[in-house]
Design goal:
3-stranded parallel β-sheet, globular, 2 domains, Aminoacid_DH-like_N_sf, 6-stranded parallel β-sheet, single chain, histidine biosynthesis, oxidoreductase, Rossmann fold, binds ligand LMY7XDAE, alpha/beta, 11 strands
Length: 283
């Protein structure tokens, strides 16, 4: 039997409705949740993503501002603007769209954002909070993956989860979240020997590499849950993930599509984090 689809669009819609309800309640207390988005340069994909983020926010009652700057903006000017937004009490969340132009140090820029407004969950303080189980902001993409697992009623306790990819914004936080839910977690990466030997043991596989066909049907245990974080283009320019969807769906128990899987959930969890930031500031 082919895998059941985990519909990211449908779940994101449900989450946006919840955010809208909580936002109304906060507004009734005189607080307008506000997200400040910064885009540096003219990367077409980033332009699309930031526009979506503004629209999602507006539709759920959050305020979002989009500041765009030329690719040759100096790092100093960007840091100065972030410091202003940190001090602005009407702004609850600050997001700098990645990637930044090459002359900028992304780490330094992210560290300039106040941890209380780090709704992307990329700041080292947010990473530390995730490691130690303290309140903080969880990065939106892995947070969205976890919500998808929750939504299908999947109990991670004692399950073997394999995360392919070790980026700071997806792979590592994903592994920590799965660990927090009591899964046994393996992180695989470019130096892993015999990736298939690991993935074949997994009850849950999260593929977050940024390369097509990293996971094929022969690498998946029958019935496993497969979450595809990849966002690639095939030869025809069609959007596809890291997973060979057509093959793997015949083996897996659950699978996320690309598009319509993790992507919309990333956007939905940004709204959740922004609202959370505003609620915390108002508490
Ligand atoms: N500051 C940040 N920068 C980046 C992040 C991030 O979380 N914070 N993540 C990615 C890009 N990204 C969000 O910014 C993102 C990418 C894609 C989608 C999405 O909804 N994808 C759709 C397909 C869209 C299309 O047709 O192109 C889907 O999968 O259905 C959401 C968010 C890098 N930068």
């Amino acid at each position: 039997m082919p895998a059941q689809l985990i519909d990211g669009n449908a779940l994101a819609k449900k989450i946006r409705a919840e955010v809208a309800g909580r936002t109304r309640a906060l507004k009734a207390r005189g607080v307008q949740p506000c997200l400040a988005i910064i885009l540096v340069g003219e990367d077409p994909a980033s332009q699309v993503y930031t526009k979506h983020k503004v629209n999602d926010s507006t539709e759920t009652g959050l305020k979002a501002t989009l500041e765009t700057y030329p690719a040759d903006l100096s790092e100093e000017k960007l840091l100065a603007r972030i410091r202003e937004l940190n001090a602005d009490k009407s702004v609850h969340g600050i997001l700098v769209q990645l990637p930044l132009p090459r002359h900028m140090d992304s780490g330094k820029v992210i560290e300039a954002i106040s941890p209380a407004k780090d709704v992307d969950g990329f700041h080292v303080a947010s990473a530390g909070a995730l490691v130690t189980g303290q309140p903080g902001f969880w990065p939106c993409t892995p947070y969205g993956c976890l919500k998808m697992l929750e939504d299908i009623g999947y109990d991670l306790r004692g399950k073997h989860a394999v995360v392919i990819g070790r980026s700071n914004i997806v792979g590592k936080p994903m592994a920590l979240m799965l660990l927090q839910k009591n899964a046994t977690v393996t992180i695989c990466h470019s130096a892993t020997k015999d990736l298939a030997a690991h993935t074949r043991q997994a009850d849950v596989v999260v593929a977050a590499v940024g390369k097509r066909n990293v996971l094929t049907a022969d690498m998946v245990k029958p019935g496993a849950v497969v979450i595809d974080v990849g966002m690639n283009r095939n030869e025809a320019g069609k959007l596809c993930g890291d997973v060979d969807f057509e093959g793997v769906k015949e083996v897996a128990g659950w699978i996320t599509p690309v598009p319509g899987g993790v992507g919309p959930m990333t956007r939905a969890m940004l709204l959740v984090n922004t609202l959370e930031a505003a609620e915390r500031a108002a508490a």
